[in-house]
Amino acid sequence: MMSGGKYTTIENQKISGSVPAVSDPGHVAVKFEDSNLETFPPSEAQGKISGGSRPPRDADDTFSKPRSGSDESPPSGWFHSFTVAAYKPYFDVDTSDVLERIKDSLFPFNRSFSEKTASHPDLYGPFWICTTLIFVAASIGTFVTYVAHKIQKKEWDYDINLVTWSAGLFYGYVTVIPLALYIILKYFSAPAGLVQLFCLYGYSLFIFIPALCLSVVPLELFRWVVAGVAGFMSATFVALNLRAHIKSSGERWFLIVAAIFLLQLALAVVLKIYLFTVTV
Question: Who contacts 127 (Cβ-Cβ below 8 Å, separation ≥6)?
Answer without folding.
Answer: 202
